Amino acid sequence: MIDWVKLRHTPYVRLLFVPFRWRALVRSSELGLVIAAAIVGLISAFVVAAISQISQWLHQAVFEIGPDDHLSAAASSLPWSALIAPMAGGVLMGGIIWVLARWHKKPIVDPIEANALHGGHLSLTDSFILVGQNLISNGFGASVGLEAAFTQLASGFASRIGRALQLRRSDMRTLVGCGAAAAIASAFNAPLTGAFYAFELIIGAYSIATLAPVVVAAIIGTLVTRSLGSATMDINIGTLQAVTTGDFVPALMLGLMCAGLGIVVMRMVTYVEKTTRKSFVPAILTPMVGGAVVGVIALFSPQVLGSGHGALHFDVGTELSFFAIVFLIITKSVASAISIGSGFRGGLFFASLFLGALVGKLFAIIFGVILPTTLTPVVYAVIGMSSFAVAIIGGPLTMTFLALELTGDFPIMMLVLGAVLASSMLVRKTFGYSFATWRFHLRGESIRSAHDIGWIRNLTVNKMMRHDVRTVNIDTGLQKFHEDFPLGSTQRVIAVDEIGRYVGMISLPEVYSSSFADKDNEGDLRDLLRFKQAYLLPEMNAKEAVSRFDRSESEALAVINNTQERKVVGLLTESHTLRRYSEELDRKRRELAGEV
After folding, report:
1. Could you say which of 26, 132, 268, 446 has the lowest number of CB atoms within 10 Å?
2. Cβ neighbour number for residue 553 with a 10 Å cutoff
């Protein structure tokens, strides 16, 4: 027989038990979580580098560009035959949609949804599937960015590491945020941007407990990216004089303008999706049709191909006419909406930066005619870039730090901060969603951020209810009822019919009250039935249960298995529900304060 004790302590097999020690370290020490975050940052940097390189190889193979060229910047010199590439990519995407519809019907969960509803649990397999879809979409020229692939796979690895370490729910959510932070920091060579991307968009809150691991992951990701020699995304805005009070007026106006246009773009994506669903074109063919339309647009405006990363660099430093900018804004917006709405996978982060820079330069032309200003068109481009991105993606501080880290100019940060706040407030008050949360809303999910509301859904009636309920047949005589349920034995009894279906609840004190007992023991229990149509279901969460208590004005309700069979499975009181709800709220508060 195998001696498992001796086998465990052999030099090679002992390595298999190292994760148990890691679990103890990470679960009991903040330093352990920081070390795990550093590992996630390292992995995320290689993830970003690998995805970027694969995308570049695809661009070289499909569009015959040079190894150092960006697709959207080099698109003006592409052969006309390359413009059918988006349609070819659509054919591949249609094939993937057909395969997934048959063998993988579960929707892919992204980091925001995972942290909001699932305690940070992400499927690594699903993450690889989304990365493949994003690479095909971007690699064949669809007007989408790669940030969805970056954050999805980096967060997927972080979640997998968290499950291996058996992290608590709050630590798991933090580690997923570390993956996203490192991915964005690596993609933009901007650690502050990556860290606040995680705080504002993935974790949903800033706290002392999350500060160290998220920042460490973002810094590690940036340092590894720099050591790999990846290209940076610096923008030279020249010399900016001291910011005056008068400079804030056009900056705020530009922020409001970007907010309005951002809402239009998000609505446009939704309109394309609805149109494709209602059309006669099968779902597996819609990406091909969308790719063909993008290819036609690229004949007249080649910069719409890809994410717009290269075109952003090219156009920010180039003097463009009013009509050329308007044409680029329209074509890029339409191409991005058609790409995503027709079934391609990707994000709008890079596209929103490109569109925002164009809107900023357009605003500089318009405002320069009305009122001369000391701000250059490049400065307006940076302000517009951040304002447009915050309208679509969200995260005011994320986009403010992005402008700071891309330009290295502190005075511009005040103008950007004012503009992004104006843009964010207008979108929140008039539209109420970012692009990601808007799509959740269309799916029927009530998610407006990555705040952890999953614990409310997990705190179900089934977990809180009592199973030792006392029932009585509604046809039982009063004398028999008195024998079975003497005064003081319980507060309430659940009444059922002859086949065990719930019919109502009987209060024991009312049965023994003088007004009912003076009927010579001939009273009918049906006269005392209450809450006949008020009950709970096991899958209801605490919030829904409290709402049901309020509507019925009851201190306790029966729990039935379903609305068809109406079999009684338990009893839940309002006081116990509120106590458990308050305990969970207090635990969440302590987690944010770093006490847990």
Report:
1. 446
2. 9
